[in-house]
Write a structure and sequence with these properties.
single chain, about 725 residues, mainly beta, Ferric Hydroxamate Uptake Protein, Chain A, domain 1, Maltoporin, Chain A, 2 domains, 22-stranded antiparallel β-barrel, 5-stranded mixed β-sheet, 36 strands, Plug_dom_sf, Beta-barrel_TonB, cell outer membrane, receptor
Length: about 725
Amino acid sequence: MSTQPRETRPIQPVAPQGWRLSRLAAGVAVTLFGMGQNALAQSTETPTRLDVITVEGNRFYEMESSEQAGGYGIDAATVGTKAPASLRDIPQSVSVVTREAIEDQGLSTLDELGRRTPGMRVLTNDSGRSSIYARGYEYDEFNIDGLPAPMSSISGSVPSLAAFDRVEIMRGPSGLFNSTSEMGGIVNLVRKRPTDEFQAHVQGSVGTEDQLGTQVDVAGPLNESGSVRGRVVADYTEHASFVDYNDNEQGDVYAALDIDIGDATTLGLGFLHNSRDIVVNNGQPVGSDGELLYGSVSEFYGAKWNDFDSRSNDWIAELKHSFSGGGYGRLAARYSDREADFNYAFGGSALDNDQTLNVAGIGSQIDQQALAVDASYSKPFEVFGNVSEFVVGADYKRYETDNESGRSRGLTSDRVTLEELNDLAFVDVLATARASGRGYSYTESRLEETGLYAKLTLRPMAALALIAGGRVSHYDAEETNKVADNSQDRDDNAFTPYAGLVFDLDAHHSLYASYSQVFKPQASTDADGDLLKPREGEQYEAGIKGSYFGGDLNARVSAFRLYDENRAATPESAGASYSVPLGKMRIQGGEFEVTGSLTDQWDLIAGYTYLDTEVEEASTARDDGIFLLMPRNQVKVWTQYGFAGGILNGLRVGGGVTAMSNFSSSSDVEAPGYAVVDAMVGYDFNDHLSAQLNLNNILDRTYYNRVGGVNTFNIVGAPANAVATLRYDF
């Protein structure tokens, strides 16, 4: 039987537009400056939580999708919480990027989204092969509906977005539900689901830098009663190719079924296929004096035969049941099967005075399987005259990766010019390394983890939520070197605590604080050949959150400090071939973010991030150098306005700025800060036909959004370009 929604916060009546905007300005000011008593005293609206206690379920369990709601505002998320919760009730930094925000900005992959999202830093490579960071750490997993699988740039497993309704992003560790993950946090992609009524659209796009795209999306009931519903999405994209020969094609097919098994139980099934075919661009070398090559944006420092091919399949099954009395149960599983083959040449040195360089190469075959299973039960209950809630559950994950790789620092005997590098005769780098044994590696890795978790949200008073949780994990990590024919493994048990609190200052603002942990098994070995203990990380975070217009607009100011210990380090003794756990980092900073809909026509995403990193005990220069690539300051803004009524009815305009301060690499390659301006104009001809033009880098700024070694990974940002999209909704 279905459950009646429970309102955890009162919904405010809709006010006239001018009043709403002045309330927003006051709310943001209060958030920024700490909610002084005078400001509180002058507030004309100070409603409190509802006095009526209704313990019949969590209203967010059946929250509508972002494509149904429209706009940029969404009041709840599941990332890092398991049971859906209001953003104000999650005592960590969480952002949600809705379907409309994705489409307005013309985003097709998660790394493209990361470049526009406050608090995230993307080390750009080919689209779908970039590295995504938050607070100095890389996201090494991505979840689909709360079920994780590995994500890495080299394997091309950064997801595309055609199959997803929204993207939920948590910054900082959340070991309660993802204990063996990285410090950066969790990214959860929420699938598009079948709909109760028929809906469909087709769209096509074309751009000035050889961009091309087509998409078909069809959803609706499959039987007369509507108890069986389906959805199919097919998408093909050719990404911008402003660098010579750097073609990048991706294709996605997504299919889903939702089947009602009675009034209170639903079975959901999903399948997602992704393929990529890329002529790899590994970036530019530096010049003979160590300078970046600003005048050579389109030059391709690789061979025309460079190639990357990947294929991935994800199968998802989910069984949900609403119990009488408000309980909610979920059993879900995801199986991922991926393979990637690549073979490419790139610069092996800096350019000399004759504009020649050495040539390096890499070839690899990667096979990866991942299984994630999760079972949870949550229930609200009444205590102390208020509604509290608990979540209990168990999960299991298993990651297996085979990586056969060949590397060469000298594909040619002599230095070559750029033209000679482009026309280089084909070399099978992996086959050559396999035959000679030089630069050849073949590893098999396995990570298996089983966990039991519980979380309690207790409200001893209406304005205060105390959150406590714990997780007991058993993990087993194994690393096998197939070339040396040896294997190391480590298994252990770990307890991961979690604590937080949320205090409501009034109906719109809450103070929050939290403590979270995470650990990360390592593949490095000590002097005895044993795997090192896992890296251990913890985070302290505090801040204030605001929620306005019934949750359509959310604001946050936060401060955080992270510690990361046991990072593998190479000892100072000459010739050492083992590692020791010496690395220790301290990362701290602050964030400000406002996201959502100010009115029915006006949407906004804006944020500022400050990051300060300190290496208290260095590991290898290569590992610690990643923090140099994190700019101290980032500003990201995007807004759009849609006109309703009058002569401009149907017109939509938008624009944004992405800016960051200077950064450098461990090879002493330095890049100045930059600011890039983007714009959008769209027009809805009628209820069915619409057009949109995205103008990227409209000032044609030449900049580097990533730097690396003297030979490679110095990646130029895209020049000015435009993409036009035409869409028809049935």
